[in-house]
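User: My collaborator sent over this chain with a note saying "see what the structure looks like." That's all I know about it. Can you take a look?
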Amino acid sequence: MAERDHAIKHGLRPKQLRTAEVRLTTVRDIALHLHGQGTTTWASVSTHDVEAFLARNPCRRAAHLAGLRQFFAHAHRTGTDLHDPTAPLDAPQHRGFRGPTLTLDHQRALYRRWIDNPDTHPHEALRPRHPPARRHHHRTAPPDRHRRGHRPPHPALPGRPAPTPLDTATWQALQRCLDHRARTGSANPHILTTRLTTTTRAPAGAAHIRDSLTPVGLLPRVLRSTRLLTLAAQLDIELLTAALGMSYSGVTPCLNPVQPLHGPWPCASGWLL
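Assistant: Without extra context I'll predict from the sequence alone. Here is the result:
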């Protein structure tokens, strides 16, 4: 709590109260563990004891070790403990991407469904091409039909520093959405309209984006993650962050995924851009 007050006082980013609760819970749990092993004082705790406690839950090793390091460092400074049993320990973490991705066969099946199947809803066919946080805010700014670029006015694509080129498949999907919107006669300025937003000027909600992929049993983030991993492997990270308006911290994990990507999207550069 003193560190939290210090951070607030100096305009730094303080730890959340939830963090303090988690670390206090860790100290409680190791106290119960050590008491069950016959250890009654903090001064007699060894590195082996701490390692045995951490081995009980390997998935939480890094979080538990962070709390124990803070606790035993404080105990060492105040003289409660003559040594810090956590000093020799470490918790190596893989910083790469851990999310699910699609196999190449699954990607090809989806591509054929969205491109070759005229019965697919236009909103479903457009889903893989843009981040879910932005798609429902797209407005009906006229695309450049000669360059096949699409640069709607702000805030249609916030964070994009340059026009986004569209490949043929994406261009066709966009035209299907515009035709679908025109048939409804809606005055809503957004490309994607629903039954609830047809008579308003509000964008379609995030639930509509998720529900449109229900027929294929996928979440938008799975499609986006697959495409981001492909782009990260094929493009320079600076070009990728500049093209998508993302931060380095958001793209870096994609450079070193835990599971190798099964294959790239069988489509041109516009997908998921």
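A starting point for your reply to your collaborator: Residues 129-137, 142-158, 265-273 have pLDDT under 50 and may be disordered.
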